[in-house]
Amino acid sequence: MGQEQKRTGCLSRRALTAGLSAIATLALTSHGFAQTAAKDGGGLGTPEAPVEIRMIANEAFAKQWQTSMVPEFNKVYPNIRVKIDGVPYAELLAKSLLDVTGAKPTYDIIIADDPWIPQLARTGALLDLKKGAGQWTKPDYDWADFNASPLAAGEWEGVQYGVPLRSNMLLMFVNKALYAKAGLPAPTPSLTWAEYVAQAPKLVQDTNGDGKIDSWAVDTYFTRDSLTPTIWQTILNSNGGALLDKDNKPAFDNAEGVKALQAHIDLLKFAPPGASSHGFNESLQAFRQGQVATLFMWGSVFKGTAVDPATTTLTPDQVGIQVMPAGSRGPGAHRGIWSGAITNKSEHPQAAWALLQWLSSKEGEVWHANALGVFPARKSTLATAPEQAWLVPVYAALQQAYDTSASGQMWRPRLAKSDAVQQILADETSRAVAGQISADDALKSAAKKIERLLK
Amino acid sequence: MTVVDQMAPGARRIRGRGRAADVVSRWAFMAPAALLLLAVLAYPIFYTIQISFAELDLGTFTATEWVGWDNYLTVIEDERFWNSLEVTGIYLVLALPLQMVLGFGIAFLINAEWKGRGLIRALFIIPMVVAPVVAGGVWRMMLDPLWGLVNYWMGLVGLGPFDWLGDPKLAMITIVIIDTWRWTPFVTLIATAALLSLPRDVFEAAEIDGANWWTTFWSITLPLLVPIIAATFVVRWLGAVKMFDIALAATNGGPGRATSVINLFIYEEAFRSLKFAESAAMAVIVLVITMVLTAVFLRGTRKLEGMY
């Protein structure tokens, strides 16, 4: 009895210890779970109780998504209603930031440009897609299939906040007909900056024989714009230079940086009159009208600028697309990925993640590329034969650009103050392009301001 | 003894109560509008002032730490801020007198009796109702050295080509031209109304006295119009000092910083660089400068009104 009592007492203590351990484990687990995983917020909806998610996106493609992408998504997820609000690019970051930091954000999904994920994630307002939404990730969602460069655009400090939805790279558009007219071979991806500049004078030509110059070698961003510095930055990167060092201090204020900026400025010698005020729209217009032989531009506009009969008289056989000319390090490219991210306070995170997963899945990407001509980020998609012929050279250029940008870290600063850095660079380099100061002084001034900003 | 002194104390009390009721009822009518004004005008201003003295946490979008004058010092040390103030000054000095002279000049022409002036008056309103972004974009196209009509037309008479948007000096002229195209009709409308309201008998008397056109203009029309000109100037000044949409659409502040007017700079620093606290400090500084200058202009206006 005594032994029994002793045994009983011993069992009780064990049972008590085990019970307490179980409760503690449960409490810790549930606490940990609450930190990393979100509530499903109505899941994927039912016919009786559909869920509605809202997205804020660039107005340039918001309407296209609403009218074409959402109906396609609803074939797979009929109980998720999607509303997309388009906002002009210039206001998109500020509006997204104001919304996600509010007590009750309007939007479940934020579509962020390449340098914005760190700025949004820093506020703690974005959902960790691998941990927070991991429970709803489909088993066949292949993270490893993404090219490293576009996937990295949605990552910050080791956390994956976004997935690539509309991939884009700074590429070189070529009007092969103008090269032929000038008696020059069409460029290949092995073209170097030295060769390009040597050929440029011949590409400034009178094509109709009336004695007036009517075609020029190049057009691109020259105006005061936050995207203008990406051109000289790509030249810098292709020569092995970098914008910032590993401690986030300016690394461009040197001979290599000045040479790169001067190379950008010197392109004006071979550009159409008034090109110093040209930006996105004007340079597209010049290429579309067959007035320039090359255009350094975001690849995503290739269809509308170079091959779409509704917007240009150029034909697919007249044009080409490839990485930007090579420097001492290799070819140039510059990343510009639109990533989809979910807000932490979303009431329907499962539905939001379902949309992002579908659109960035292998099937979704193939549909997106073939139906809307949107550039994919997955290796498997780029390895397929696209339904539209104009996409064939684009896929080859994209794959090379992804590899190039990943190895050369060719992207805008991944910082919480990325846009402020870009604005300073735009300001100072524009002064150099306008001839107000030298390239050397512009970079010195920019470096000083950026150092102060990031202190 | 006054009438009030002669009144009985009871009557004074009743009258006092009546006055109090009157004051209360007046305030009761004014209170909703006053509260609304306080909410939509005073709150944003006080919030801006609060942010300008604090560090703004982007995570919560609230002012967190009081930093005293730090944001103001940062702004004052930023040469881009001073450059933008200078650019704004140049724009105002060029645009305001031009718009005033053109506006009143056109009003004189329209005021004369000629066929079709009604149609011209109606057409004059068009630039005012065109959205600034559209106006900037259209002018951008017209002034483009490659495709633009302006250089083509000027080329026909042997002028140009001009790089309207790419040349730092010409870019400011371009902004002034677009802004003048947009706002001169506003001045013209006010001036036309003012001219129509001038007393006819004075002009008739001058005519009988044999005054010529110039004497009539210099000695009668202009003095009578001075208060209107001054008031129009103040109204236009308040509009012009806020200008940034035309610069944003036409040149985006470039080339270099040639057209980076102060409001465009504040907008860029706040909404592109996300430096809200420094931008708030800049906004407060600009508000103070504008208030001081507006007070000076109003004082000048009152003096002119007194003189004429």
Notable traits:
heterodimer; A: 455 residues; alpha/beta; D-Maltodextrin-Binding Protein, domain 2; 2 domains; 5-stranded mixed beta sheet; 17 helices; globular; B: 308 residues; mainly alpha; MetI-like fold; two-stranded antiparallel sheet; 2 strands; flat
* Separate helix tally of chain A: 17
Q: How many β-strand runs of chain A? A: 12
Shape of chain A: globular
Strand-pairing-aware structural class of chain A: alpha/beta
**Helix-strand sequence of chain A:** HEHEHEHHEEEEHHEHHHEHEEEHHHHHH
For the CA atoms, what is the radius of gyration of chain A? 26 Å
CATH class bucket of the largest domain in chain B: Mainly Alpha
The CATH topology of the largest domain in chain A: D-Maltodextrin-Binding Protein, domain 2
CATH architecture tag of the largest domain in chain B: Orthogonal Bundle
Determine the CATH superfamily of the largest domain in chain A: Periplasmic binding protein-like II
Roughly what is the average pLDDT of chain B, rounded to an integer? 88
Low-confidence stretches of chain B: none
Rg of chain B, Cα atoms, Å: 26 Å
Count of spatially separate domains of chain B: 2
Strand sequence of the main sheet of chain B, in spatial order? 1-2
Can you tell me about this structure?
The complex is a heterodimer of chains A (455) and B (308). Chain A is α/β, with parallel strands linked by helices and 455 residues long. Chain A has 2 domains: 51-167 and 336-384, D-Maltodextrin-Binding Protein, domain 2, CATH 3.40.190; 169-335 and 407-454, 3-Layer(aba) Sandwich (D-Maltodextrin-Binding Protein, domain 2), CATH 3.40.190.10. Helix content of chain A is 46%, strand content 13%. Chain A is built from 17 helices and 12 strands. In chain A, helix 8 packs across helix 9 and helix 16 packs antiparallel against helix 17. Chain B folds into 2 domains: 3-42; 70-307, MetI-like (MetI-like fold, Orthogonal Bundle). Chain B has helices at residues 3-6, 9-52, 70-77, 79-111, 117-124, 126-129, 132-143, 149-156, 168-196, 200-208, 213-240, 245-250, 262-272, 276-307; strands at 54-57, 62-66. In chain B, helix 4 (79-111) runs antiparallel to helix 11 and helix 13 runs antiparallel to helix 14. Chain B is built from 14 helices and 2 strands; from the N terminus they run H-H-E-E-H-H-H-H-H-H-H-H-H-H-H-H. By secondary structure, chain B is mainly alpha-helical. In chain B, strands 1-2 form a two-stranded antiparallel sheet. At the A-B interface, helix 3, helix 10 and helix 16 of A face helix 13 of B.
